[in-house]
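[Q] Does anyone have a clean structure-token version of this?
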Amino acid sequence: MTLEPRIRNSAALLPDAAKGINLLYKAAHSAGVPGSTLELVHLRASQINGCSACVDSGARSARKNGETEERLFAVAAWRETPYFTEAERAALALAEAATRLADRADAVPDEIWNEAARHFGEKELAALVLWIATTNFFNRINATTRQPAPQNWG
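[A] Here you go.
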């Protein structure tokens, strides 16, 4: 079953929104968190939310920026693979908790936060939280409006 998009490109329909989105992107990517970590966090949150457009674009962007196929294929099972650093694992755990807020009474337990804080400074943590929230923002827009992954990549 193929679902048709309900509307096309929300950002194009609301150009002022694109300006704000670009500022969020710039802020999250300028705080010193490695770009590869931000790519992994984006991909994992998008997988959880079932956002095909973001999973597709996130994996392609990560690959274009040097990420290996091995690591991309393993993001969904990051706990069971040896491919990720301790800092990346902490960021992925934070992304999962912040994406699944309703899954537990203490949405982001101290154990998860403290592990992330072992690897990232306060500014970097702020950037990670902002990037996770921004990813979830995109996932919700795309899922609600049924934005598909592109079918014709050249």
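[Q] Thanks! Anything notable?
[A] Residues 122-144 form the longest helix (23 residues).
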